[in-house]
Amino acid sequence: MNIDNNSTRGLALLAISMLALAFACGDDDDGTTGTDPDMMTVDPGDMTTMEDGPGPMEDMTTPPVDPFYVVHFTQQTPETFNSLVGIVPNLEAGTEFDTSTALEFPGFLGVVTPPEPNGSFFVMLGDETVIIRYDVDEDGNIVEFDNRLNYSAATGATSGNFMLSFAHFISDDRAYMVVPDALAVIVWNPQTMTIVETIDLSEGLTPPENLAARATDSRIDSSGRLLLPMGYCRFMNMDFTCAPIMRLAIIDPDTFEVTYDEDTRCGRPTLSVTDDDGAIYFVSHPGQSSQFVGGAAGDPAFPGCLIRVLDGADGFDPDYYVNQLDLTPEGRPVGSIIPGVGNRAYATVWPPDRMVSEFNAENWFMLRSEPVWEVYSFAPGNEVATFTLEDDVPTTADQIFGRLVNVRRPDGSDEVIPIALTNPDGFGSSTFNDVSDPANWQSGIVFPGFTYSVDRVR
What we know:
This protein is mainly β.
């Protein structure tokens, strides 16, 4: 792959694609605890440190009249690449996001919140093996909790490897965090910010020779088991390609016993969706189809794909596999696949008025950033028959993020809705969309950077 080092746009897309979905080398770290003044550029008046020591979060479980949402996005200049994490009071169109009040960190990181908003969010540093808890008060002020959690000693990790979507909350005082480069999972207490247990996954997830383990997605199934798919990539000598290998670790929530499986039809798991029966569909990286049709996916190469784990099963479904190029008659590349409402999901697709033959080994990467990708909806498990263009949804760059978010409606009610963060001008900004109605997406606030997550914090 040839990248023009003088092109800021090319460098930004390379960084976004590699890092947004944990597409990079590196271990998971030995960062130190305590506030590093070089890590944050927030005004001291906007962030204070709690002096009381570890304590419960229950006093924040009742949402105030006005909710708050935590937003994570990145901004890049020719000299810097930073992650910003800030608070907004609503997600309506026209709302201004004040970047001067945001926490700012160098490089990439992850931001997670408990499924029930309780006033706290957690920053998982990308360059250090550190998790930081922040609490948001009733006025929207960000307060850093007294104790930072460093998992280097427990796992042997030496960096965070971007830590984008690796935490799951089991209860008020238990959460999982996947440490992919250490081939481990830690069980930690979000209230005291201490480690409870370390689960070693090296027995079943150790990479094949000359490949590096990469994970960017994990899910909790209906019985509370953690499902962690692992991909394996060739990150040597500027070879940014991956192998058609996916391994799976399933962790029992009571005993922490681990079951393993392997599939060699699909690889590079990055996103996931579910169906009404509880099956979990693991989806390859949004750039995999583009890279494949461009002739730049390595050897052996594989197209973008989906495989699944049926609810309660102990491994991949051997009877299910979807080649994303089969979803359209022309074999157009498919980008991101994200959750929708009910038994629906959304996909970004290269438009029919542009030729698939445009993709080659030099330009496939940049074509992903063109804001011409259309949005389709489909039913997981019945993809080809239900693959439908959503005509009224604006086009976007291929890489979008989707999730379920607890929002406050104008009538004061709370509702969990599917949302999509689209990129209608490439990767310079992101638009929040309520995608509850497949044919009528409701656009909201625009964030001034490539946005990874929006979650309710209060």
